[in-house]
Design goal:
With 252 residues, this protein is of the alpha+beta class. It has helices at residues 2-26, 41-47, 65-76, 148-160, 199-205, and strands at residues 110-115, 123-126, 132-135, 139-142, 169-175, 179-183, 189-191, 217-224, 227-234, 244-247. Among the domains are: 110-175, wza like fold, CATH 3.30.1950; 179-247, Outer membrane lipoprotein wza domain like (Outer membrane lipoprotein wza fold like). The chain has 5 helices and 10 strands, in the order αααββββαβββαβββ. 15% of the residues are buried.
Length: 252
């Protein structure tokens, strides 16, 4: 019976060792895992690129079975994604219309006078035949021959004299005084002035030349503080506010 007992003991030892190996495979431990931290959005906006490579999760993939499959699913999961915020595009700034600073005002010009903080004074004013604009408080202010900056200074000086302590005044040209075209055109008369106008465009506004018009040169009369000036000019000559264009008659 002794050999039989030894064989049974040896068999139980082998079975115990096998069971230990099986349990050991199912209960393997996972190695240390590095947790990937998302990059700060502020860092991304400040520096424009990641400071270094993203940390990668390290997982022990050895072994098999359900536990190994679960580990593999965690290892294959996408890491955190840093979201970059694009800087907002600046809003387009409105470009104000700039007028010729050397332009001299005269009767017929329409002005926009702005007195900051004074809605009762801010308004549109036309220069009358006497060459002045009439405003509340200060009355008639001479404008003929002045620039817009000069007129703004004059209005501010008058308001400072007993009305407003430190007035801030701006003057802009809202509409220029009209020009006149006479002679051999389809519709002679007075027309609103358009900036950058030439004699040729003035003739077009008046309906074009008449059949008897002299089409190579015209006469332009311009008035300023020094008096009137008249000249025979070609069609490409600029026309100013208040100018009179005369189209003559050809002789053949």
């Amino acid at each position: 019976m002794a050999p039989v007992r030894v064989a049974r003991a040896f068999r139980w030892s082998i079975l115990a060792a096998s069971a230990a190996l099986v349990l050991g495979g199912c209960m393997q431990t996972v190695g240390p895992v590095a947790v990937a931290q998302p990059r700060s959005d502020l860092d991304y906006m400040a520096y424009g690129q990641p400071a270094g490579p993203q940390p990668v999760a390290v997982v022990d993939n050895s072994g098999g079975g359900a536990i190994s499959a679960l580990r593999n699913s965690f290892a294959a999961a996408p890491g955190p994604v840093a979201v970059g915020y694009a800087a907002p595009m600046p809003a387009p700034m409105a470009v104000p219309v700039r007028y010729d600073a050397s332009y001299h005002l005269d009767a017929g010009d329409k002005l926009r006078v702005v007195v900051y903080g004074q809605e009762g004074l801010t308004n549109t004013y036309a220069i009358d035949a006497g060459g002045a604009i009439t405003m509340p408080l200060v009355g008639a202010v001479p404008a003929r021959g002045r620039t817009t900056a000069g007129l703004a200074s004059e209005i501010a000086a008058r308001l400072r004299n007993g009305y407003i302590r430190e007035p801030s005044v701006a003057v802009e040209i809202e509409a220029y005084r009209p020009f006149f075209i006479l002679g051999e055109v389809a519709a002679p008369g007075q027309y609103p002035y358009v900036p950058n106008m030439t004699v040729e465009s003035a003739v077009a506004i008046a309906g074009g030349f008449s059949p008897r018009a002299k089409r190579d040169v015209v006469t332009v009369t311009r008035s300023d503080a020094g008096g009137a000036m008249r000249a025979v000019v070609p069609l490409g000559t600029p026309v100013g506010p208040g100018d009179t264009v005369y189209v003559g008659e050809r002789w053949f």
